[in-house]
Amino acid sequence: MESLAKELEKNTIVAGTPEGQTKEALAPTNGAKATATNDAADDDDDDDQDDAEGGAAPSGTSAAKKKKKKSNKKKKKVAQTEPPTIPVSKIFGNKIYPEGERQEYKDDNLWRVTDEEKRADERQKFDQYNEARRAAEVHRQVRQYARRNIKPGMTMIEIVEMIENGTRALVEANGMESGIGFPTGCSLNHCAAHYTPNSGDTTVLQYGDVCKIDFGVHVNGRIIDSAFTLTFDPVYDNLLAAVKDATNTGIKEAGIDVRLCDVGAAIQEVMESYEVEIGGKTYQVKPIRNLNGHSIDPYRIHGGKSVPIVKGGDQTKMEEGEYFAIETFGSTGRGYVHEDMECSHYARVYDAKHVNLRLPRAKTLLNTINKEFGTLPFCRRYLDRLGETKYILALKNLVDAGIVEDYPPLVDTKGSFTAQYEHTLVLKPTCKEILSRGDDY
């Protein structure tokens, strides 16, 4: 018997393995398939604990199943809540955020797609793009919830707080590191831009309103500026289609070395090709000629360049590396806006010179603005939220001194209707990326 046992042991030696290693050591018995595993340190710790508690782990099928079960463990995908409350950094655990829509440059710039030097330059800027993509993902998730849930009968304050609370939660608002890029615009009908409700505003959204939702998100000063128009009456469908088509045309035309005036000419041609019938009267959709898109710099929503939405004007060229908000406004009115209504939007002047302020309240208010917003736009509701009171006179003092600029609502003729669409893009070395693009628009 002893010689027979030795013979069996000899027959189980596997060719090509270290001397004395048996099949039992390499593969489980009872027909189970062998699996090559690299046990992690925590698996070793678990095995040691099993040995201490219940003896050595059994060989064979049960041990293999145990190891297989461990190696196949997958983390559960985190799903967003309704309303959105889970930060996008928790949903994307690897902290790599989705790219926007990629569009190749036109004509003479097509070579950039495959140029190795440009591709290497783009890879070096990954962190910068990733910050902007994080802000863009927050924008997409918040706005998609808002589009599903904004309904006639809601107050404008309820609407903007829904959007701003979602933004703060998803971007993990933290002072100048991340947060709201600028106050949420919800301009109605003939008001085209720069309206957000002040505290006490009781305006209610109506079925027949045309509401422009324009809000921003920033991560380390990289601002995503994107807007859409909400209507509930299908009579406005062609107005919205005109402005959306014009915005997409502007995006298509934008590129490195493209003249800003050429983008404007293309936008105007498309928008004016649309008509809309409202109340039995037909209107040609007009671009609002004194509203523009703009470049975006870190912590500066309106950079140094403007993107017109009509022909003529600025011959300046777009440049590699620049961020732009391509936004268009269409109107059934004159196609020209002026300031009106109570002001809500403000921003510290980017390159304001030092001014000796005599009013102590103005000094303390400026300290709050510098700390909480820097050069990012803010509104009176944000000051209220911080606990600031009786600041109207101090705020006017800062405006009069040229330290803070006010941005009153911009309106076309009463009785007219205006619409807006907007996206943020970056002119990368190899292609342009429309960062804020989503399934909705």
UniProtKB/TrEMBL annotation:
Chief location: cytoplasm
Which UniProt key words apply to this protein?
Aminopeptidase, Cytoplasm, Hydrolase, Metal-binding, Protease
Residues of the region (Disordered) are: 1-94
Q: Which residues bind substrate?
A: 194, 302
Tell whether Cytoplasm is among the UniProt keywords.
yes
Protein's UniProt keywords contain Cytoplasm? yes
Q: Which residues bind a divalent metal cation 2?
A: 225, 294, 327, 422
Question: Which cofactors, if any, are listed as required?
Answer: Co(2+); Zn(2+); Mn(2+); Fe(2+)
Q: Where in the cell is it found?
A: Cytoplasm
Composition-biased stretches (Basic residues): 64-78
Extract the GO molecular function terms from the UniProt entry.
Answer: initiator methionyl aminopeptidase activity; metal ion binding; metalloaminopeptidase activity
Task: Describe how the cofactor binds.
Answer: Binds 2 divalent metal cations per subunit. Has a high-affinity and a low affinity metal-binding site. The true nature of the physiological cofactor is under debate. The enzyme is active with cobalt, zinc, manganese or divalent iron ions. Most likely, methionine aminopeptidases function as mononuclear Fe(2+)-metalloproteases under physiological conditions, and the catalytically relevant metal-binding site has been assigned to the histidine-containing high-affinity site.
**Pfam families, per the entry:** Peptidase_M24
Domain Peptidase M24 spans what residues? 132-335
Q: Which GO cellular component terms are attached? A: cytoplasm
Binding positions for a divalent metal cation 1?
A: 214, 225, 422
Any one of the GO BP annotations? proteolysis
Low complexity: compositionally biased ranges:
29-39
Q: What is its EC number?
A: 3.4.11.18
Q: Which reaction does it catalyse?
A: Release of N-terminal amino acids, preferentially methionine, from peptides and arylamides
- Where is there biased composition of kind Acidic residues? 40-53
As for what it does, the entry says:
Cotranslationally removes the N-terminal methionine from nascent proteins. The N-terminal methionine is often cleaved when the second residue in the primary sequence is small and uncharged (Met-Ala-, Cys, Gly, Pro, Ser, Thr, or Val).
Q: What is this protein called?
A: Methionine aminopeptidase 2
Which organism is this entry from?
Actinomortierella ambigua
| Lineage, opening ranks | Eukaryota, Fungi, Fungi incertae sedis, Mucoromycota, Mortierellomycotina
